[in-house]
Structure formats: C-alpha cells, structure tokens
Amino acid sequence: MKTCTICKESKPKTEYYSKTGQCKPCFKARINARRQANPEPHREWNRKRQANLTDADKDRQRDYWRIYRRANPPSKKQQYARNQARALPKDVLCKYCGTYGALEAHHRNYDKPLDVQWLCVPCHKQWHVTNGPGLNG
After folding, report:
1. What percentage of the chain carries pLDDT values higher than 90?
2. SS3 track for 99-127
3. CB 27 within 8 A of CB 5
4. First and final C-alpha spacing in the chain
C-alpha cells in the first residue's frame, strides 16, 4: 500500500504511475486542469504529432477506427440525433473558444436531439476528455 500525496488515501501500488507520488485519478485530474487552464501548447503539440505521422501510422489509425465503428455501431437515437442536427442552422463560432471554422454538433442528451452545442474539433474532444463519453453530461 502507498499513500497518495494529493488525496492522502492508501491504495495499492498498481494504482500509481511509476515516478509520481500521486494516484492515477489525482494525476489525471491535475493534468486535465493544467490543459484546461492553458490549452494552446497541447493543441500545438497535437498538431505537430499529427503532421509527423507516417503513412503506416495513419493506416493503423484508420484501421482501428474502422474496426471500432463496426464493433460499436451508433444507436437509432444517435443516428436520429445526428440527422436532426444536420438540419439545424449552424452557429458560426465555437461555443467555448469562439473560433471560426469547421464545427461539430455535440449532443448533451440524445433524448433532446435538437438541443445541440456547436463546438470546434479540439473543444469537442476536450469536452469528452473532461466529462467522459456519456450522453447526459
């Protein structure tokens, strides 16, 4: 057993990363808070990482998502919500960061398919990193 330096709880050593005194949940919360406070360096890092991908890396990613989509097809509710969102007028700017460009429809609740937030790709991804993949967030 090891005690976390942040939450002060005793947990098994498997609940810690090797070089920190923080348990995994505390470590992840700290990193997410830092990314939210200053997102631009992380966005730039991701842009550079994507630009340096080899063709083999891109093929591997494409294959992964193809298999994932086959194994996890969207529900009828998700399909209906997506189709309803396409018919909605799009906002011009991202709801969170205010950038102009390609926007994605984010449904906080698929039971309300017309209740859509328009987010840029980085903000949409960050929303799901912060709040999880759930539908009612």
Report:
1. 16
2. CECCEEEEECCCCCCCCEEEEEHHHHHHH
3. no
4. 34
Domain layout of the chain by residue ranges: 1-37, 40-73, 75-137
Question: Six-digit token pair at 82?
Answer: 């997506």
For 58-72, 89-103, 120-134, which range has the lowest pLDDT when averaged over its residues? 89-103
* Cα angle, residue 127 at apex, residues 106 and 119 outer, rounded to 5°: 45
Q: What does pTM read for this prediction?
A: 0.41
| Cα(99)–Cα(58) distance, integer angstroms | 27
Amino acid at 18: S
| Phi, psi (deg, nearest 5) at residue 134 | -60, 160
Half-sphere exposure of residue 19: CA atoms within 13 angstroms, side-chain side? 0
Within 10 angstroms of residue 17's Cβ, the number of other Cβ atoms is: 11
Q: What are phi and psi of 43, to 5 degrees?
A: -65, -45
Residue 66 confidence (pLDDT) above 90: yes
Q: Look-up: residue for tokens 């994605």?
A: 104
134 has a pLDDT exceeding 60: no
Separation of alpha carbons 27 and 129, rounded Å: 14
